[in-house]
Amino acid sequence: MSMRIRTSACTALTVAALAAGTVLTAPVAGAAPKAAAPKFLSASQLPPHPTSSWTAGPVTEGFPEGLGLCVSTEGVLDYDYRNQEFRTDLNTGAVQLTVVTGTAAQANALAKHYDDLIRTCADRIEESTPEVEAEGRDYGKLPVEEGARVRGLHTETSWGATDIALLSVGRDGRTVTVVKWGQMGDFGDAPVAAFKKTTTTAVNKLY
Question: Which keywords accompany this UniProt record (predicted)?
Answer without folding.
Answer: Signal
